[in-house]
Amino acid sequence: MKRIIAAIILLLSCTEYLSVPHHTKAQKLTVDRLLWKFNASHTTYLAAADSVIYAASPTGCTDYVPCGPPARLFALDEKSGKQKWMIENVGGDSAPVIADGRVYQSGGASLFAINAQTGQVEWKLKPGANGTVMHSPVIAKGMIFFWEVQALIPAGFFGGTLHAVDLKTREQKWKFSISGGMVSAPVTDDGLIYVGSTGGSLVPEKGRLYALDARTGSVRWKFGVAGSSLTADGGIVYYAGTDGFLYALDARKGRKLWKIKSVQGFYSTDLVNGLVYLVVPGQKLQAVDSKTGQPKWEFKTDREVYSSPIVSSGVVYVGSIDGGLYALDAKSGHELWSFKMGNAMVSSPLVADGAVYVASHDGYIYAIKSLN
Asked: Is 319 inside any structural domain?
């Protein structure tokens, strides 16, 4: 009798795990459809507009590695990979943003606006004396929003100021400061700007999520959980807390709709067609229902995943430090194909005009023909 009861308990404990499809990479699906590759001499972060790939690389200097090439911003022909222009001392650990014929990119202590056709710097903003511009900016309501962080250390950065600047006049409209913790890239939706912070034991301010009025910078609401990855769509904010929970919050009120637990926490999120795609520490990509938080499927690679997933035309693209780019069916999680680069991939892939563009730690940018 005891054996029967034990067996029932074991079965019940496994039911949830077994109900979620689990997939692992399929080596036989590896494809070799390389269109071109370009040597940028450093890991890059990618964006695309008007048949041009823009790639930003940080400086080669770190606390652990001797100085390599300076920070750079490249413009490459989308079809051939041929360099159109390149400028130095502009670039960083974030993708450029392209709008109205300009490329907006961080460069040390400044935010640069660069002519997308010529590569000429049109203007730059230096918001503070000692800060560093971090993360990709966000453009909305005729304004550009960007972070200036106050202290950089090997493990991250502490505190920062979110600046809101009029794009026409370059006049600062407002600023919002967080005194401690790592800060998330800003996300905008329906007139609000969302930012998260991690807080921490070494800083005085508790981590939380803020919803700011995009016009005034006033705090509409805040949610008292630390985190640094979020996305917003359809009136819901999806927020990956450092406590290991993914939260779905009402975008206007900040009210919690649901939450799900991951023992290992979450790195990054993306949202498309009713599913939230999560990078989970421990070599996994997970998809959950955006309305209920119910897990739908998960996919496991050989090594950890640090890049954010990108969803396009029913396919999820994600890279791993095992050197692979994986194309998965967005609904089922089944692997459609993969491409091996031979070196780690940590920046997010980019999809444009029938091709997937990825940057590897070997310093190359790869253009891969989509097979979907």
From this structure: no
Question: Among 206, 214, 207, which Cα is nearest to 232's?
Answer: 214
d(CA 63, CA 298): 36
The candidate with the shortest Cα–Cα distance to 339, out of 34, 24, 22, 39, is 34
CA distance 56 to 111: 13
80 DSSP assignment: T
User: Nearest Cα to 361, choosing from 84, 68, 129?
Assistant: 68
Q: Copy the structure tokens of residue 108.
A: 């040390």
Q: Which pLDDT belongs to residue 321? A: 87
SS3 string, 18-50, reads HHCCEEECCHHHECCCEEEEEECCCCCEEEEEC
The percent of residues above 70 in pLDDT, for the chain, comes to 82
pLDDT at 334 over 70: yes
Q: How far apart are CA 328 and CA 317, in angstroms?
A: 6
pTM reported for the whole predicted model: 0.86
Is 343 part of any domain?
A: no
Check which CATH number belongs to the domain holding 287 and give it: 2.130.10.10
- Domain annotation covers residue 262: yes
Question: What is the rounded distance in angstroms from the CA atom of residue 155 to the CA atom of residue 204?
Answer: 18
Per-residue pLDDT of 150-174, as tens digits, reads 765 544 556 789 999 999 999 999 9
Contact between residue 227 and residue 235 where contact means Cβ atoms under 8 Å apart: no
pLDDT at 145: 97
Strands 22-24 and 295-300, how do they pair? parallel
**C-beta separation of 143 from 165 below 8 A:** yes
pLDDT score at 268: 58
User: Which pLDDT belongs to residue 195?
Assistant: 94
Residue 365 in domain: no
CB half-sphere exposure, 238, CA atoms < 13 A: 25
Query: Among candidates 211, 205, 275, which has minimal Cα distance to 249?
Result: 211
List, for residues 260-275, the tens digit of each pLDDT value: 886 555 555 667 778 8
The average confidence (pLDDT) of the chain is 84
Structural domain containing residue 100: 44-311
For residues 25-38, give the mean pLDDT: 68
- Measure the N-to-C terminal CA separation of the chain; round to a whole number of Å: 53
